[in-house]
Amino acid sequence: MFSLASSTLSRGASRRAASAVSSRFFHASGADLAKLNVEGLAEKVDLEGQNVLMRVDLNVPLSKDDDVTVTDTTRLRAIVPTTKFLLDKGANVILCSHFGRPKGEIIETGKNGRLNPVVPHLKELLGTDVTKVNDCMGAEVEEAASKLTKGEVLLLENTRFYAGETKNDEELASGLGKLADYFVMDAFGTAHRAHSSTEGVAKHMKMAAAGYLLDKELKFLKGAVDSPNRPLCAIVGGAKVSTKIPVIESLIEKCDTILLGGGMIFTFYKALGYDIGASLVEDDIVGLAGELMKKAEEKGVKLILPTDVVLADKFDNDANTAVAKVDEISGDWMGLDIGPETLETFADEIAQSNTIVFNGPMGVFEMSNFAKGTVTVAELMAKATERGATTIVGGGDSVAAVNQAGLGDKVSHISTGGGASLELLEGKELPGVAALTEA
């Protein structure tokens, strides 16, 4: 059912009973979860002395001052568990990743350049030597791969130096396939793309398995919507409803409650006939927003919009601000965050949910004066985790907001892939997962 968030409004039909299951892990069925993981690979094959090609995500930020200094090693640390597991099994690990968007050009330095800046960090994190080659396929790379001995690590060059990478070029896929007999996919952030190094290469391997990072993402994100501990609550924000339409449509089929925030809410308000002042709106989506509200009502799902917002007279952190009911917006005022009354209602809904998915900020959180809604939701997620709820944060902006609030380790799971996490929540099959060997 659709409603504006308010403690005085009817809640409608009673909530579905909460599951007694307190585990934060899921045991969902489905194609994506039936794939071989790295531990299963090690059970099936003696990996000692075997070359294993491992697709990882090494897209680390670099310093703007010198273009070569890594400023955040989060993504590098994320690949350590799977890499060390393979090394402990005696495998020779060949790491491959794209870096930025060089679009088929060889760029020496910078965010679209060579992977040289990550080498010293990988050596330190893995506690072993890492040899890098300046290509990702061809005779020289094949020779380097053939000379690997037990427990060595080889890093390939930026796969997107080849324009065919993003086109799932067969020549590149087979070139990568010549380097190893086994493939481990651990780059969730690119699993939704059918590229040569994610989907194509798996066809050239004896077996292809999910690494720890990818396996965890599948269990949490797919488990959250396919087999949740109910009630299931989704908190969806962001600037534009057009980018979230598929996920909202999918969540209406699966959730008990959906809380909406961010700039997208004003498109819904316009569909309801409200004056939205100078707030962000997608006029071509207004009709669809109305249809989503109707669909939620027909399904008996609570689709809840904020009842109050924080207004500003300009898009600036130093703007004049005011809190107003959503039917009191007018003139040149624009909504940049959700209001305090709404946060109370959201707190009530989150407190009664056993699985909570958060995707998209509640306001312009990059500006401190309009960050309270997003930060408060992050804090509510942390509290829910403490009481045993499963809490999942997906999407780049949501993750950034939770980390900025210092709560990254206070939720059950933070997804490493923005687009990939959205597509999983939409119920789509990810090419990089579909290509893996069945368990």
Structure keywords:
439 residues, 32% helix, 6-stranded parallel β-sheet, 16 strands, 7-stranded parallel β-sheet, alpha/beta
Largest sheet: 7 strands, parallel
Alpha carbon gyration radius: 23 Å
What is the residue-mean pLDDT, rounded to a whole number? 89
Give start-end ranges of low-pLDDT stretches: 6-32
Strand content: 15-25%
Number of helices: 16
Count every beta strand, where a strand is a DSSP E run of 2 or more residues. 16
Which overall shape is indicated by the principal axes computed on the Cα atoms? elongated
Main sheet: strand order? 1-10-9-8-14-15-16
How does the helix and strand content classify structurally?
alpha/beta
Helix content: 25-40%
Termini separation: 40 Å
Subunit structure: Monomer.
EC number: 2.7.2.3
Family: Belongs to the phosphoglycerate kinase family.
Binding site for ATP: 244, 335, 366, 395-398
Write up this protein.
There is one protein chain. With 439 residues, the chain is an alpha/beta fold. Strands 1-10-9-8-14-15-16 form a seven-stranded parallel beta sheet, with helices on both faces. The protein has a six-stranded parallel beta sheet with strand order 4-5-3-2-6-7, with helices on both faces. A three-stranded antiparallel beta sheet has the order 12-11-13. It has helices at 38-44, 74-78, 80-88, 119-126, 139-146, 170-177, 196-200, 212-226, 245-252, 265-271, 286-299, 340-351, 372-386, 396-404, 418-425, 431-434, and strands at 2-4, 51-55, 92-96, 130-132, 153-155, 182-185, 207-210, 232-236, 257-260, 302-305, 308-312, 321-325, 334-338, 355-359, 390-394, 413-414. The chain has 16 helices and 16 strands. Strand 4, helix 5 and strand 5 form a beta-alpha-beta unit. The longest helix has 15 residues, at 212-226.
